[in-house]
Amino acid sequence: MAKGYWIARVDIHDPERYKDYVSAAKVAFEKYGANFLARGGAYTELEGPARMRNVVIEFPSMQQAVDCYNSPEYQIAAKIRQEVATAEMVVVEGI
User: Fold this and answer.
1) N or C: which end of the chain has fewer CB atoms below 10 A?
2) How many C-alpha atoms does 16 have within 13 Å on its Cβ side?
3) How many angstroms separate the Cα of 82 from the Cα of each of 30, 46, 68, 88?
4) Is the CA virtual torsion 40, 46, 51, 57 positive or negative?
5) What is the 3-state secondary structure (H, E, C) of 13-75?
6) How many Cα atoms sit within 13 Å of 19 on the Cβ side?
7) What pTM, to 2 d.p., does this model score?
């Protein structure tokens, strides 16, 4: 079974409230076996506009990655994130 990966590009508008998102999302990430491969940190802009925070999260499967996003636990966190940040997120299947 192929792993699933969240790829998120985020601009944070309210860093203090974003901490609330991180705390709330932790519950869903633990429940669905999330493994953070990249979370913020240095980046090099190569093509197109960059965002200030780039995140890659590995899940045991594509289905678990999608289920995590759609879970009631994560949707509580997502609502906070949507209020304090602008993001682009996709789930991709590993090889």
Assistant:
1) C
2) 0
3) 21, 26, 17, 11
4) negative
5) CCHHHHHHHHHHHHHHHHHCCCEEEEECCCCCCCCCCCCCEEEEEEECCHHHHHHHHHCHHHH
6) 2
7) 0.94
* Pair of tokens at residue 14: 């309210």
Number of residues written out for the chain: 95
Once rounded to an integer, what is the mean pLDDT over residues 14-21? Answer: 97
Are the beta carbons of 43 and 3 closer than 8 angstroms? no
Comparing CA positions, the residue from 30, 10, 35 lying closest to residue 71 is 30
Task: Tell me: pLDDT of 1 over 90.
Answer: no
Which residues are CB-contacts of 91 (< 8 A; sequence separation ≥ 6)? 4, 5, 6, 7, 62, 65, 66, 69
| Both tokens assigned to 20 | 């609330």
Bridge partners of 52, per DSSP, are none
Q: Which two tokens stand for residue 49?
A: 């506009």
